[in-house]
Protein: Acyl-CoA dehydrogenase
Amino acid sequence: MEYQDSERSRELAGRARDFVDDVVIPRERELPGGTAVPDDVIAELREEAKSRDLYAPQIGEEYGGMGVDFRDVLPLFEEAGRSLLAPPAMRVDAPDEGNMHTLEMAGTEDQKDRWLRPLLEGELTSAFSMTEPRQGGGADPKMIGTTAEKDGDEWVIDGHKWWITNGGEADFYITLARTDQEKHPYEGCSLIVVPEDTPGLDVERDIPHLGDDVVSHVHSEIRYDDVRVPEENLLGEEGEGFTIAQKRLGPARLTHCMRYSGMAARALEVAKAYTSDREGFGDPIADKQGVRFEIAEAETNLHAARTMVRHAADEISRGNQARVEVSMCKFFTANVTENAINTALQFCGASGIGKDLPIADFYENVRQFRIVDGPDEVHKRVIARNAYENVDMDELDPLPTF
Ligand SMILES: Cc1cc2nc3c(=O)[nH]c(=O)nc-3n(C[C@H](O)[C@H](O)[C@H](O)COP(=O)(O)OP(=O)(O)OC[C@H]3O[C@@H](n4cnc5c(N)ncnc54)[C@H](O)[C@@H]3O)c2cc1C
Structure:
């Protein structure tokens, strides 16, 4: 097996690294710790990314992107992950990146004109609205309770969602709802685009959560009460909701893995610099074997994660869903990056807790990765079903994971 990045991929990642090092990282330090980045900083960085031909590389050229193949674009996501400011600057940030992919894949030309092109330009922002409180769908999204019923030429949506990133800020919500109660949810759910100003769509609150999001992401609780949208807001075919969601989520999980790998790699870079500079007990902290062994372990695990992601991406590029491989990447990378960032924080001492360095923000951010896009256990469930029952997971219904 050969996981080498192509020349195009390396060239792109190299330029992304220069952009992050030379332009983005210096802007990080302008910000007081824990404070949301002002929109004008992101807007300026976006202009610079455009001028360097590094903007929305994953989206087709006909919609304003660069049309780079999924496998080739992945290493750029890793470089982008090295700063929390870089993904929005290069327009490779979640959830908009996954929503652009969904619209590109399943949208009509009218829907692409209305939502995809302005989303790519940063004129709009979006949300993916799937998870529900207690009695609805979470780790097991087939428990979905939100419904959409046809009334004339409109969809009427009723339901309750939460943890919806960008809730209250999004211009539209790609909403998963049950459109056929008779069918199994995997065949009876659809995706419907709900503009933010639709009557009956009520953002009840931003859910207080771990960490201050530097790149201001809110995660909201939302009610849909007799929300009416035109039938043409259906994304893809009726009943295809989970199928489209699954096609979105496989690649999106790998792009998440790469961004978090970049974050962990930067945390280790910072820790190596700190421990090389800081002395204690007679020599630099970096010379202590106890430190070196832990850094070596973190580097090894990170290398394994990055290699696994490249293998899964190769499979996806060959037209396979690679569900088992993607699940392996997702839970493994989530744990490896969390551990690497924790290690890096430890070896920076109090400076690791402080926000002069970026590690504290990374530490607050990385914990969610073991839960979002499917908790560890759900991915292990997929892997174990394949291991015990020799099930071809790609032949199955969409995965029960977000
Ligand atoms: C920061 C953040 C952003 C998010 N953004 C979005 C968004 O934009 N849109 C959206 O729709 N959702 C979003 N979510 C929700 C996220 O997708 C869900 O939290 C996730 O799918 C898990 O669902 P749950 O929280 O309801 O967990 P639950 O279903 O309540 O599960 C709780 C825990 O039980 C365990 N568990 C579950 N199933 C099993 C099993 N089979 N075996 C063993 N253990 C199990 C796991 O440890 C799991 O974490 C976000 C969440 C967070 C934290």
Q: What stands out?
A: The chain has three domains: 7-121, 126-240, 242-395. Residues 165 and 219 are 4 Å apart (CA to CA).
